[in-house]
Design brief:
The complex is a heterodimer of chains A (179) and B (454). With 179 residues, chain A is an all-alpha fold. Chain A is 70% helix and 0% strand. The termini of chain A are far apart. In chain A, 40% of the residues are buried. The chains are: A mainly alpha (179), B alpha+beta (454). The interface between A and B is medium-sized, with 34 and 27 residues.
Chain lengths: 179, 454
């Protein structure tokens, strides 16, 4: 079943197409939700809510990107709204802290599950910005707009996230990956 | 570049990652959730329609009421103009002259006459026919009779005046006295609500008000002042208040022989009946019960002169060797402190006389309070103290006079119930009837009053 058929079927409220959409993408969306949410339960709730939104708004999908990208975007927006509703306090860091060095090769040696665990262990602010910037590919400007924060705050949250990740990697690998 | 590499690494690794989820999360669960949300929306739609319908009906109702009232208002304005602007008489005469010559006026006149006729036939009001005629007859030969008609309440006399014929009579401009009332606007007069005075203040009997009667113009704002709903409200209030306060008694002067370290506190409860006397002021009278309690420690510092004698033996080595005892006397002053406990208690009843001033500060209502409590002690015990002295309270029945000053915000809690938070300053005095000594102390504290508007 092509994406077009899938979308058309879902708009027609065709149960088979709707189930197919669920089967095809739900686990991927779950992994996305897990990266943004604090717990498995919260991620599962976000997944279900995201799918409700997706089913309700599929008629607005214009095929300007892949269906998966659009679905991911819906899910990210939903997770961000949840984070914003929690009224998280975003902090900035100094320029010196921002310029600290990193060893990005560290990720190369890690398994996907390890990276996921590391990302999930990040504080919510760092994790959100890191997910959006490093994984989803949003710019800091977009992130700032979406989260209602300064662009500088977004940058600093990202820098802190990387620093914390690096520290976790150093700890988990006995410091062998230290810069 | 490093960033890009890191990001692509992460994306490669995480993008296609699939995570499992709990059994409770399933396609069916999602669809159920979706149905529930849809149902919620469906339930909302009718209620929104009902609310919108109510708004529309309310709006239309308001519109209908407004349009129904509008003509009434305009009539009143026209009447007022006709009565109070006699200077325009001349101008209107000229206008009426023009109209009468054009013939249109005749039609208008006859129409008005018909209207009047109907009114009379129903017996609702008495309007002389000459009223209508007078519109164009100010300068006509029958002008005097017209005047008489208008001022005279008797319909019989008005009937004597020839109606339409005078209209055709040649018109001569006469400098009519300005007291003459133009009756041109008398017709709108007829359509007014006859139970209301045109000026809207006095109730009048059936019939039009006498235009020549000396109507006073209402100064701006007076009408509102007379009919201010606040006037109908009661001016009486009841107040219940609990006030507490304390003061530390301490003497830092080391030179004083007696110093006292203590604490005095009071609790005062009162009920008042207050009357609003206008301009934000209230005065009141009531009953209060108060307790003043003090506990402390007195300390007396005294200096004693003490003599100390040191003795030592001196051995004289000259033969014959002997020992001589030497006495060395020293005088010194030693400070001796004596301490003891102090306490007193005064219970009293008083008749508080209160003045309150209510005012607004920003968006908050505030109240300043001054109060004088003349009263009588019902029980006294112990020694009243200040920071340098204490005296026993000899008499049980003593006169008291307390003064209280307080300022605080007023908060409305229920309909006609208010809460006043009052940081206050209260000075307590009493006159010991046996010793004739008046003692007092000022305490600072906090009070809460509940005010009820009858």
């Amino acid at each position: 079943m092509t994406e077009q058929e899938l979308v058309d079927g879902c708009i027609r409220e065709d149960r088979i197409c709707q189930r197919e959409l669920w089967n095809r993408y739900s686990r991927k969306i779950m992994s996305l939700c897990l990266r943004y949410c604090n717990s498995q339960e919260e991620a599962e709730d976000a997944l279900m809510e995201a799918y409700v939104k997706i089913y309700n708004n599929l008629s607005k999908f214009r095929f300007q990107s892949s269906l998966e990208t659009w679905m991911r975007r819906v899910a990210v927006n939903l997770c961000i709204n949840k984070i914003r509703a929690r009224k998280h306090i975003w902090t900035s860091i100094t320029e010196d802290e921002y310029r600290l060095g990193y060893n990005d090769d560290a990720f190369e040696h890690l398994q996907v599950n390890q990276i996921m665990k590391l990302v999930e262990a990040l504080p919510v602010g760092y994790r959100t910005v890191f997910n959006m910037y490093a994984i989803e590919g949003y710019s800091h400007k977009d992130i700032a707009e979406m989260l209602g924060i300064d662009e500088g705050t977004s940058r600093s949250q990202y820098a802190k996230a990387r620093k914390v990740l690096q520290q976790h990697i150093q700890k988990s690998e006995g410091g062998s990956l230290a810069p | 570049m490093e960033n890009q590499r890191l990001h692509s690494q992460l994306r490669d690794k995480l993008h296609d990652l699939e995570s499992p989820f709990n059994e409770r999360v399933s396609f069916e669960a999602v669809m159920k959730k979706r149905e529930r949300k849809k149902r919620r929306v469906i339930l909302w739609i009718p209620s929104m329609v009902v609310v919108a319908g109510l708004f529309v009906v309310g709006g239309l109702g308001m519109l209908w009421v407004e349009t129904d009232q509008q003509p009434e208002k305009s009539k009143q304005v026209s009447v007022a103009k006709s009565i109070y602007k006699p200077g325009k008489a001349k101008k209107s005469l000229l206008m009426s002259q023009k109209m009468s010559s054009s013939g249109e006026e005749k039609i208008a006149q006859s129409t008005r006459q018909q209207e009047i006729g109907i009114g009379r036939s129903k017996g609702l009001w008495m309007i002389p026919e000459a009223d209508v005629i007078a519109d164009n007859s100010l300068e006509s030969p029958v002008i005097s009779s017209v005047e008489a008609v208008i001022t005279d309440e008797s319909p019989k006399e008005t009937a004597a005046v020839s109606p339409v014929t005078t209209l055709a009579a040649p018109l001569e401009l006469v400098e009519a006295p300005v007291e003459l009332v133009q009756t041109k606007d008398a017709v709108p007069y007829l359509n007014q609500d006859m139970l209301c005075d045109p000026q809207g203040i006095e109730k009048t009997q059936l019939g039009i008000s006498d235009p020549l009667k000396d109507h006073a113009e209402i100064p701006e704002g007076e009408y509102e002042a007379q009919w201010d709903p606040a006037l109908l409200k009661s001016k009486w209030y009841a107040e219940f208040s609990a006030t507490t306060g304390s003061s530390v008694v301490i003497n830092f002067n080391e030179d004083d022989r007696l110093s006292i370290l203590g604490n005095i506190y009071h609790a005062n409860y009162h009920g008042l009946i207050l009357k609003d006397v206008g301009k934000g002021f209230m005065v009141g009278l009531g009953l209060s019960y108060g307790e003043m309690v003090g506990t402390g420690e007195w300390r007396v510092r005294e200096f004693e002169e003490r003599m100390s004698i040191d003795t030592y033996d001196v051995v004289v080595m000259l033969p014959p060797v002997q020992t001589v005892r030497v006495y060395d006397t020293t005088y010194s002053q030693v400070r001796v402190e004596t301490v003891g406990m102090l306490n007193f208690r005064i219970d009293k009843y008083a008749i508080p006389m209160a003045v309150r001033y209510n005012f607004m500060l920003g968006k908050m209502a505030w109240r300043a309070a001054a109060q004088l409590n003349p009263g009588l002690t019902i029980k006294t015990a112990g020694d009243f103290f200040t920071n340098t002295e204490y005296t026993p309270i000899a008499s049980q029945k003593n006169l008291t006079l307390d003064m209280k000053l307080a300022v605080g915000p007023t908060i409305s809690i229920f309909n006609n119930w208010f809460l006043v938070l009052e940081p206050n300053l209260m000075h307590h005095t009493f006159r010991d009837m046996k010793s004739g000594v008046t003692k007092g102390k000022t305490l600072t504290g906090f009070g809460v009053s509940v005010l009820h508007h009858f």
